[in-house]
Design goal:
The chain is built from ten helices and 14 strands. By secondary structure, the chain is α/β, with parallel strands linked by helices. The chain starts with 5 loop residues before the first strand and ends with a helix. The relative contact order is 0.16.
C-alpha cells in the first residue's frame, strides 16, 4: 500500500483539540518525515452552543449523542476536505456511520477524573451541599451516588474556561475535569504527587486538584485517548493512520467502546468503565447508573479478547 505524500488533518479549534492535533502531527512526522501535513480547524455544533447543556444541544440540532462534537468534522471527511479526523475518543460515538471507520488510537494518557476545588481534601472534604460543576451525566450520577448532598450544576466551555468559572465566578465550589486534558494543557504535571495528595493547579494557585483513582471514580469509555477516524473506503489513509496506532491503547479502548455499544450507550448514558491490561490479560470494570439516579449496576470481566471480555462484562452486570 502506497502511503500518501500529503495528509490533511481535521480538528476542533479548542486549546485541547489543537494540542491533540499537534500530537498527531508529531507522530506522523516521526513515522513519515517527508510527508506534507496540513491542519484544518473546524468549528462544531458543540463549540458553537455553550449556553445550554450538551443534551439540549443534541436535541435542538437533531444530532444523536456526542455527534455535537464531530458532525461538521465528519462532513468535511466525507467531502474529502480532510483525510484524517482527530478526536478525543470519548467524544466519538460507538456506532459510526457506514462511511467512516476508527482507524487508530494514539498512546493513551491518564484516564482519571480530577476534582478541582477551592479547598484541599478532595471529594470527601467538600462542604455539605457544595456546588459541583460538570456537563457529564456520568460524572453527575457518580458524584451524587458518592455524596447525595452535593448540588450538581451544568458547566460548559473549554477546559480553561471551565477552570476560570470555578476560580472567579463564585458559582462553583468544585468542578470535575479529565486528567489527560489538564496535563496536556499544562495545568498539572504528568506525574501525580505522592499518594495522590491535592496539588495546586498551575496558573490558578487558588485552586486545588485531586486526581481520583479510576477504581473509585470510574472514567468514561475511551477517556484519555486520541482517536483517528478515516473514510471507510480510503485504504491509503486507513493504512497511514493505523501505522500510528498504539496496541495496548487500541485493545483497551476497543473493549470499553464495545461494552458501551452493547448498552446502546453514549453521551447521555451514565456509565463509567475502566480497563487494565497486565501480563496478557484484559480486565474491565463498569458502573451503569439508572437515568433517574440510584444505585448502579456493577460488574467486571477478565480475558484476552477485547470483544469477548466486553460481552462477558455486559452479561455479568448486577
Amino acid at each position: 500500500m502506497k502511503i500518501p505524500s500529503r495528509c490533511i488533518l481535521g480538528t476542533r479549534g479548542s486549546a485541547l483539540a489543537l494540542v491533540q492535533a499537534e500530537a498527531t502531527e508529531s507522530a506522523l512526522r516521526r513515522s513519515f518525515p517527508h510527508m506534507e501535513i496540513v491542519r484544518k480547524v473546524i468549528k462544531t455544533t458543540g463549540d458553537k452552543r455553550t449556553d445550554v447543556a450538551l443534551s439540549e444541544v443534541a436535541k435542538a440540532d437533531g444530532t444523536f449523542d456526542k455527534g455535537v462534537f464531530i458532525k461538521e468534522i465528519e462532513e468535511a471527511l466525507e467531502a474529502g476536505e480532510i483525510d484524517i479526523a482527530v478526536h478525543s475518543l470519548k467524544d466519538l460515538p460507538t456506532n459510526l456511520g457506514a462511511g467512516f471507520q476508527l482507524a487508530a488510537v494514539l498512546p493513551r494518557a491518564a484516564v482519571r477524573d480530577v476534582l478541582i476545588s477551592h479547598d484541599e481534601g478532595g471529594l470527601n472534604r467538600l462542604k455539605i451541599g457544595a456546588r459541583v460543576g460538570t456537563s457529564s451525566v456520568r460524572r453527575a450520577h457518580q458524584l451524587q451516588w458518592l455524596r447525595k448532598d452535593l448540588k450538581i450544576s451544568d458547566l460548559r466551555g473549554n477546559v480553561p474556561t471551565r477552570i476560570e468559572k470555578c476560580a472567579e465566578s463564585g458559582d462553583y465550589d468544585a468542578i470535575v475535569l479529565a486528567e489527560a486534558g489538564l496535563v496536556r494543557l499544562g495545568f498539572l504535571n504528568k506525574k501525580s504527587s505522592a499518594k495522590n495528595q491535592p496539588e495546586r493547579l498551575k496558573k490558578f494557585p487558588s485552586l486545588f486538584a485531586t486526581r481520583m483513582a479510576e477504581s473509585e471514580f470510574f472514567p468514561a469509555a475511551g477517556q484519555g485517548a486520541i482517536g483517528l477516524e478515516v473514510r471507510a473506503e480510503d485504504a491509503a489513509n486507513l493504512a497511514l493512520a493505523a501505522a500510528l496506532s498504539h496496541a495496548n491503547s487500541w485493545l483497551r479502548t476497543r473493549a470499553e467502546r464495545e461494552f458501551l455499544r452493547l448498552l446502546d450507550g453514549g453521551c447521555n448514558t451514565p456509565v463509567g468503565i475502566f480497563s487494565k491490561y497486565l501480563r496478557g490479560k484484559l480486565t474491565l470494570h463498569a458502573r451503569v447508573f439508572p437515568e433517574n439516579g440510584g444505585h448502579p449496576l456493577c460488574g467486571q470481566a477478565t480475558g484476552q479478547d477485547p470483544l469477548s471480555v466486553a460481552h462477558q462484562l455486559f452479561h455479568n452486570l448486577s
